[in-house]
Write a structure and sequence with these properties.
With about 325 residues, the chain is of the alpha/beta class. About 30% of the residues lie in helices and about 15% in strands. A hairpin with a 6-residue loop joins β2 (about 30) and β3. α8 (about 270-285) runs parallel beside α9. The longest helix has 16 residues, at about 270-285. It binds threonylcarbamoyladenylate (TXA) and magnesium ion (MG). Magnesium ion binds next to loops.
Length: about 325
């Protein structure tokens, strides 16, 4: 039988070198990270960045996150300050993205940051992408590997579900451990959280020793969270449901729900981190079945629950 997933490659030294070759030729590949899977391209190449926007059908005004494996490389592209260093020390590599001032002589392709004066940067902790970045002389622009506005992928098969053979190479790194996109924090001017993620407002406030607000503005510089419609499975979603019927997929959380073909439990144990890891997987599964609606129970608004509720609100918009 022919393997339909023939563009998915397992994580091995040989395949890392293959990935490097693709990237050096300014081609786009699928890559794992600890948050979600991404589409990676050379951040210094116009050609690569244009391909990313085209593949994702992403509006040009929505900038990409640039990924690095070390501070020395970042310093060529962005100005850093004390605030950044404190947070970097505590949380990087990991699921935190910083918005910094772009250096005038940076080689980052202006399209990659929507011609803004700022760039978003992240140091991913997933071993595969870290090792790949180490091999390269340029940073990678890596947006989530989904068509703009759709559900983010958390496995190599999800990337295939979004793009099929439109990309030639998807590097497999197992299920994403976190399953929700990184926290985005603005460090240009007043410190603000633009998108909630696994690194919480509380943890950040503790390091900076002050309260950090969530950004409420729907500015032209749409930050992840700030696009109104996002993470969409393409059918209506109703939040805070107590019960459901047989036409809807019922997403639940905790042990009191019976198993049946309409019910999808994010975490039978009632563990919010597990629920976060499963959220996009479950939404994608339901999307590929024949449901007309999704009903979802109330998810506790604490810890990762805050991130889950942020994404659900946008998916339901
Ligand atoms: O966890 C993640 O961050 C994943 C993995 C693959 O690293 N990436 C990701 O990228 O979520 P993306 O493109 O799906 O979301 C990044 C968001 C964009 O929606 C954009 O609005 C915001 O970051 N962003 C990027 N550069 C920005 C900038 N200079 N100012 C404000 N927001 C920015
Ligand atoms: Mg995205």
């Amino acid at each position: 039988m022919k393997n339909i997933y023939s563009n998915i490659y397992k994580n091995s030294p040989k395949n890392l070198n293959k990935a490097k070759k693709f990237l050096k030729k300014n081609k786009i590949i699928g890559v794992p990270t600890e948050t979600v899977y991404g589409l990676a391209g050379n951040a210094y190449s116009d050609k690569a960045i244009k391909k990313i926007y085209k593949l994702k059908k992403r509006p040009k005004k929505n900038p990409l996150i640039i990924h690095y494996d070390n501070l020395k490389k970042l310093k060529k592209d962005a100005n850093i300050d004390n605030r950044f260093l404190k947070l970097y020390k505590k949380f990087s590599p990991g699921p935190l993205t910083f918005i910094l001032k772009k250096k005038k002589n940076s080689k980052i392709c202006p399209l990659a940051n929507a011609k803004l004066k700022t760039i978003a940067v992240r140091f991913p902790s997933h071993r595969t992408i870290k090792n790949l970045l180490k091999k390269l002389h340029f940073p990678l622009a890596i947006p989530s590997a989904n068509i703009s506005g759709k559900i983010s992928p958390v496995s190599s098969h999800d990337v295939f579900d979004e793009f099929g053979k439109n990309i030639n190479f998807i590097l497999d790194g197992g299920m994403s451990k976190i399953g929700l996109e990184s926290t985005v924090i603005n460090l240009c001017g007043i410190t603000k959280i633009m998108r909630p993620g696994a690194i919480s407002k509380k943890e950040i406030a503790k390091v900076l020793r002050k309260n950090i607000p969530f950004s409420k503005k729907f500015s032209k510089i749409n930050s992840p969270g700030l696009l109104r419609k996002h993470y969409s499975p393409g059918i209506p979603i109703k939040l805070n449901c107590k019960k459901s019927d047989n036409r809807a997929a019922f997403i639940v959380f905790g042990k009191k729900y019976k198993k049946n073909k309409y019910t999808f439990n994010l975490s039978p144990k009632g563990n919010l981190s597990e629920a976060g890891k499963n959220l996009y997987k479950v939404l994608r599964k339901i999307k590929n079945l024949d449901f007309k609606r999704i009903d979802i129970v109330k998810i506790p608004n604490r810890g990762i629950g805050i991130v889950i509720n942020d994404r659900l609100k946008k998916a339901a918009h």
